[in-house]
Amino acid sequence: MKVCFDIDGTITERPEFFSLLSRAVRKSGGKVFVVTSRTRSAENMEATKREVNDCGIEYDELHMLEDRAEAER
User: What is the C-alpha separation between 19 and 29, in angstroms, rounded?
Assistant: First the structure.
């Protein structure tokens, strides 16, 4: 099983629920992907990882949007 959770308005609304769900999915051999429309930068990536970890989410990959200038290259 593969599941994908958004951060803002999803994980942040019910962190305890998504923490339990992420652990159950990974324990059963599934993968958890976290997505956000936050712009990807080194600073944002580290801050977002901390926030997701602080919510108790176990995940396999974090996906963020490219910086607009980077995307237009």
Answer: 16
Closest CA to 37 of 56, 61, 64, 14: 64
Query: Token digits for 61?
Result: 């990959």
The pTM (predicted TM-score) of the whole model is: 0.84
Cβ neighbours for 44, distance < 8 A, ≥ 6 positions apart: 38, 64
Across the chain, where does the E strand assignment appear?
A: 2-6, 31-39, 61-65
pLDDT in tens, the chain (73 residues): 999 999 999 999 999 999 999 999 999 999 999 999 888 888 999 999 999 999 999 999 999 987 655 656 6
